[in-house]
Amino acid sequence: MQINGTHQIHGTQALNGPHFNNRPQQATSAASSQPVDQLDLSPAALAASESSGSDGIRTDLVAQLRQQIASGTYDTADKLESAVDRLFDSLG
């Protein structure tokens, strides 16, 4: 959109832009030559993912935290103070 003063304002344009139909058509074979994403994990990362279970949840840590919550020892004054400090830091 161009604004040339307060008396000349062009109207809205289509979402696909004014030159969308003028683009050259890409061949369908170009899509097959696109690079493919690939993920390579180190042996250490593979071992860590296998030890944490098939879904990535560390069941030993979850059990420990559930036990702390149930016994009432999870919430401490230090954790609350740390959380409040982080909140104030994020607010600026």
From TrEMBL:
Keywords: Cell projection, Cilium, Flagellum. Residues 37-75 form the Anti-sigma-28 factor FlgM C-terminal domain. Residues 37-55 have a biased composition (Low complexity). Residues 1-59 are annotated as: Disordered. Transmembrane segments: none annotated. InterPro entries: Anti-sigma-28_factor_FlgM_sf, FlgM_C. It comes from the Bacteria. Residues 1-15, 22-36 have a biased composition (Polar residues). This is Flagellar biosynthesis anti-sigma factor FlgM. It comes from Aeoliella straminimaris. The lineage of its organism: Bacteria, Pseudomonadati, Planctomycetota, Planctomycetia, Pirellulales.
